[in-house]
Amino acid sequence: MRIVLLPPLLLALAASPAAAQAPAPGASATPAPLVARRGATTLTEAQLREILAREPAETREALRRDPQALAQFVRARMLRMALVEEARAQRFEQRPDVAARLEQARLDALAEAYLDAMSDPPAAFPSEAEIQAAYDANRTRFMQPRQFRVSQLFMAVPQGAPREQDEAAQRRLRELRAQATAPANARNRADFAELARRHSEDRASAPRGGALDWVAEDRVVEPIRAALSGLEEGGISEPVRSETGWHLLRLDATRPAAPAPLAEVRDRLVAALRQARAQELSRLAVADLLRREPIQIDEIQLGRVAAGSASAR
Predict the structure, then answer these.
(1) Whose CA is closest to 257, among 107, 132, 145?
(2) How many domains does the chain fold into?
(3) Does 227 lie in the same domain as 198?
(4) In Å, what is the CA distance from 294 to each residue of 108, 284, 287?
(5) What gap in Å lies between CA 46 and CA 60, rounded to an integer?
(6) How many angstroms separate the CA atoms of 312 and 268, rounded?
(7) How far apart are CA 88 and CA 81, in angstroms?
(8) pLDDT at 40 over 50
C-alpha cells in the first residue's frame, strides 16, 4: 500500500476539524488538497476535517499532540476505504446476509446518533462555579508528590567499570564533601556550587553550580530518593551510586505533596464533568422513552425462540 502523507497539514486538521471553508465568490476553483492517496483512492483535507469532527474531543486532542498517531489514524481510514472499494467492485453489498448487516448497522448508527444528540450537555456546561466545586470536592485525586530541588556533583562511572575506577570516584567525592561541609572558618572550606562547576562531569548542571530543576519524588531513582529523604534542606549526602556513576547531592529545597493547581487540571476536570453529565442525560432520555411506552416481552414466545436456536446447533 502506497500512502502519501503531509504531516504539517495533518496536525493542522487535527487542531481545527471544522469543515473547510468554501472559496470566495468569483474565486477560481482549485484542486482540493490531498492528505493521503492510494492509487485512485484519495482522502482530501475537507474529508478528513469531517471525519475528525465526528471524533470525541479527547480523541482529536490526542491526535493533535501525536503526529504518529494521527498518521496511523489516516492509514486506518485509507485501508477502510480500500476495503470498501474492493467490496463494491465485487458487489458484495448485494449479498442478502451483507445487506442485512448493513441495514442493522445503519439502524444502530441512527439510534446512537439520536441518543448522542439527546445527551449532549449545553455548551456553557460546566460553569466556573461548578468547575471550582468539583475541584474542591476532589482535591485528593489531583495530589502531586513531594518535590525536590537538588544540586549535584557527579562522577561518571558506568556499571561494570574496573573496581579501582569505581573506588577512586567514590573517594574523590568524599574528599569534595569534606570541603563542602567543613566549618565556615576552616582553611579547606569550599562552596558546593563552585566545586560542582570545577569538578562535576554532568555537563548540563555543572555550569549552574550543579543545580537541577524541580523533580517529583516518584521520578527519582531509588538510591538517590533514599538519600534525599534523609537530608534536611541544605544538607549534603554521602556519595550515592546510580547506574551511571557516583553522585554527591545537596538538598536545596522541598515542596510538600499538594493538589495540582486548578489551572493544570481544568481541562481534564471539564471533560470529566461533561462526560458525567452526558451519561446522566442519556439515562434520563432512555428512562423517559420507556416511561412513555414500556417494552413488553412475551416470555413464552421468547422461550420458543431460544429452544429453536439450541436445536439448530
Answers:
(1) 145
(2) 3
(3) yes
(4) 20, 14, 9
(5) 16
(6) 51
(7) 11
(8) yes
Structural domain of 271: 121-144+259-289
Query: What gap in Å lies between CA 125 and CA 280, rounded to an integer?
Result: 13
- 85: which residues sit within 8 A by CB, 6+ positions away? 41
DSSP string covering the chain: ------HHHHHHHHH--SPPPPPPTTPPP-PPPEEEEETTEEEEHHHHHHHHHTS-HHHHHHHHH-HHHHHHHHHHHHHHHHHHHHHHHTTGGGSHHHHHHHHHHHHHHHHHHHHHHHTPPPTTPSPHHHHHHHHHHTGGGGEE--EEEEEEEEEE--TT--HHHHHHHHHHHHHHHHHHTS-TT-TT---HHHHHHHH---TTTGGGTTB---EEGGGS-HHHHHHHHTPPTT-BPPPEE-SSEEEEEEEEEEE--EEPPHHHHHHHHHHHHHHHHHHHHHHHHHHHHHHHS-----HHHHHHHHHHHHHH-
Give tens-digit pLDDT for 281-294.
999 999 999 999 99
On whether both 230 and 175 belong to a single domain, the answer is yes
Radius of gyration of the chain (CA): 32
State if pTM tops 0.90: no
Grid cell locating 308: 429453536
99 in a structural domain:
no
**Whole-angstrom distance, CA of residue 174 vs CA of residue 167:** 11
Q: Report the C-alpha gap between 247 and 185 in whole angstroms.
A: 26
- Domain boundary (256, 272, 307) is at 256
For residue 234, the domain's CATH number is 3.10.50.40
Asked if pLDDT for residue 197 goes beyond 80, the answer is yes
